[in-house]
Each structure stands twice: as C-alpha cells, then as structure tokens.
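Let us work through a complete example step by step.
Step 1: write down the sequence.
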Amino acid sequence: MAKFAVIMPAAGASRRFRDKHYKKPFAVLDGRAVWLHSAEKFLSRDDVVQLILLVAEQDREEFNMKFAANVAIMGVDVVEGGAERADSVERALGRVKPEVDFVAVHDAARPCLAEEWIEKIFDEAQKSGAAIFAVPVAGTLKRVSHNTIDETVSREHLWEAQTPQVFRRQLLLDAYAKRDGFVATDDAQLVERLGEAVAIVPGSSLNLKITTKDDLRLAQQVLKVLPKPKPGGTGNPFAEDDIWR
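Step 2: predict the structure and record it as tokens.
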C-alpha cells in the first residue's frame, strides 16, 4: 500500500474573511474548527501516515492554546509557514517522513470533503504521478482594467483548480528544488514548469474554499449533503468525539 503525507496550508492572512477573532481555518464550522473538518477526513485513512499543518508564526501561540490537545491526540505535525504559500509548502516538504511515497496538498480552509473524493484523487495520483481536482469554468469571464471591460475571455478549455493536489513525492521535491523564488499560486503550477503532465480529476462545486463569512454559512449547508461513507467502511473515528470541538 502506497503511503501518503498531507500538507495543509493554514498560514495565510485571511484578509477577506474579516473576523477579528478568527482566521478562516480556525473559525467554527458545525461545532469545530474548519481545519479539523479537513484534517479528520485524511487521518481516518490507513494510507495517510502523516499530516502537516502550516500555521503563521504570529498565530502559533494562540493556536497552541486552543488546539494543543487536538494536535497531540491526532498526531498532527505543526510547522510555521513562510511569507508565501509556496514558501510554507516548501518548509513542510522538509518535514515529510522518509517512508512517504506521495504528498497531498490540501487547503485547510477547504473543509467540505467527501471520503470518496479523496479515494479518487489518491488513485489517480498513483496511476499518473500527479493529479489535481478541478472544475470547468462556468461563468462568463471579463478582462478588466480601471473598472472597465477590456474584453470577454473565452472559457473554452479553462478549469478552476481545487485541492487536494497529489504528487509523487520525488516529483514535488524536484518541482520545489527548481522553484528559484517563483511565486506559484498552487503546487501543480510548479510541476507544470518542469514540463511534467498533471492529470485533472473532475471536482465538485461542493468542494468550496472558505474565503468570506458567507462561504462559512454556505459550508454549513454543504456538510449536510456531502456523499456519505460507503456501508461497511471504517467511517470517521474523530467525528463524534468531544475532544475535537
């Protein structure tokens, strides 16, 4: 069985979330923090041997006060993030266990995951070496400058990337080794720069990323309609334990 590590960036500034008490990964969703919803879906799997959570240096003390018990019992490794998302992931890669075959990167602020989706993206990564979730762009796209439309952009062949994004470990290490300060908006972009193919797995609009408080309210409803684990599965060992609340 292939072994996976999961890197979860949660070190962003959350400027658009606009909550003086919480950054978006640590806001409360359905009784527990957003990042816990994301983490527990991976940690319920036998093939996930490590989860690394990236936290901003300025948030570390408060994070420890609120979540030290969760981190200890769940076995989560906490790493301080860098200036940019890619800096943070690069730091986490240096902490990945030597026995890991594949690395998944998943936004801590993307809590509406179904177990069958993780199974699908892990399977594809093992076949192709690199796979990401994405959805076709559905809306009409406008290129704008100074609040005026310059042109309408064709959405043909355009997809919006999501996470998890999963890569053969050495491939992702190679991509970051040749990053040379490039500011990537996702990890697939760095792999693309190597000239390597990245497979697309059709995602879901339910796999939303929380950016604003409206997204948090929407996620509350999405959790109710996510696909449930198949009968006979192990289920989620963390879901009903008050320690996670």
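Step 3: interpret the result. The chain has seven helices and eleven strands.
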